[in-house]
């Protein structure tokens, strides 16, 4: 079906061009600012950055084409939402991305995504268990992956620990315990899942604010918490640290 061109039709085309340029610029901005890792796994950085530049280039060429295009007869397409509304939604969502600071997931999301469920495991499916690795060099994700492979807590009794993460107060732990947690990503933020280990404190956990990042040094100990035998970090020191620029584990 063909209809005569009206000014609002060209406005719709311009909205599409601006929305495409805004989304491409937003992806490039996240890359330049070093915050792209909050949204996506580094394996997909090249694809995402390339997509951002591609959208900007296409928007420029499409804009030049529209600028030079005379008013004429155009095809009209029918869809659930009109093209102008789709363009407005895309443009507004891109503007929100520019205006609202990008924040990583924190304790509330960790609890909502099952951090308190001790059946939570990593999704990396490791194929090997290397006992020769230095315990103090393991990250929080390394410890959780190791426990996935060989979950007997007594095997790690007394091993030194030096890990970093943010504080979560699980409801199922006493007030002298907290959970040191991080989020792990396999593809993008949509599939991020929490990992963590209980930390035994010498004082009430209120001295360690929720969502604050800490470097924890201590040693592993087997304890029964919430009627389950599990590995606990007995903390010798908790040092506040800034939130990492890229807080996720991979």
Question: Can you give keywords for this protein?
Answer:
single chain, 250 residues, alpha+beta, OB fold (Dihydrolipoamide Acetyltransferase, E2P), 5-stranded mixed barrel, two-stranded antiparallel ribbon, 23% strand, DUF1980_N, TIGR03943 family protein, transmembrane helix, transmembrane, DUF1980_C
What does this structure look like?
Keywords: Membrane, Transmembrane, Transmembrane helix. It comes from Acaryochloris thomasi RCC1774. The chain crosses the membrane at residues 14-32, 44-64, 84-102. Pfam families: DUF1980 (PF09323), DUF1980_C (PF21537). Residues 17-115, 148-250 form the DUF1980 domain. The chain is of the alpha+beta class and 250 residues long. It has two domains: 7-99; 107-240, OB fold (Dihydrolipoamide Acetyltransferase, E2P) (Beta Barrel). The chain is built from five helices and seven strands; from the N terminus they run E-H-H-E-H-H-H-E-E-E-E-E. The protein has helices at 7-32, 45-68, 83-99, 107-112, 140-149; strands at residues 2-4, 73-75, 160-168, 177-184, 193-200, 213-225, 228-240. The strands form two sheets. Strands 3-4-5-7-6 form a five-stranded mixed beta barrel. A two-stranded antiparallel ribbon has the order 1-2. A hairpin with a 2-residue loop joins strand 6 (213-225) and strand 7 (228-240). It is elongated. The mean pLDDT is 83.
């Amino acid at each position: 079906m063909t209809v005569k061109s009206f000014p609002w039709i060209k406005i719709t085309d311009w909205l599409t061009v601006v929305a495409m340029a805004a989304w491409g610029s937003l992806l490039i901005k996240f890359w330049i600012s070093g915050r792209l890792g909050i949204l996506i796994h580094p394996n997909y950085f090249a694809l995402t950055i390339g997509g951002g530049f591609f959208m900007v280039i296409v928007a420029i060429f499409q804009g030049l084409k529209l600028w030079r295009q005379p008013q004429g007869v155009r095809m009209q397409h029918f869809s659930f939402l009109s093209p102008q509304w789709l363009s407005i939604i895309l443009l507004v969502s891109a503007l929100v991305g520019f205006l609202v600071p990008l924040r990583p997931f924190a304790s509330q999301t960790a609890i909502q995504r099952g951090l308190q469920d001790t059946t939570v495991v990593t999704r990396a499916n490791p194929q090997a268990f290397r006992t020769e690795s230095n315990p103090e060099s393991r990250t929080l994700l390394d410890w959780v992956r190791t426990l996935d492979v060989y979950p007997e807590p007594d095997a790690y009794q007394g091993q030194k620990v030096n890990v970093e993460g943010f504080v979560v107060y699980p409801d199922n732990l006493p007030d002298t315990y907290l959970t040191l947690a991080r989020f792990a990503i396999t593809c993008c933020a949509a599939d991020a899942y929490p990992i963590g280990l209980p930390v035994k404190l010498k004082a009430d956990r209120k001295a360690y604010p929720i969502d604050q990042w800490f470097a924890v040094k201590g040693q592993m100990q087997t304890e029964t918490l919430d009627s389950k035998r599990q590995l606990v970090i007995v903390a010798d020191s908790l040092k506040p640290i800034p939130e990492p620029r890229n807080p996720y584990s991979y």
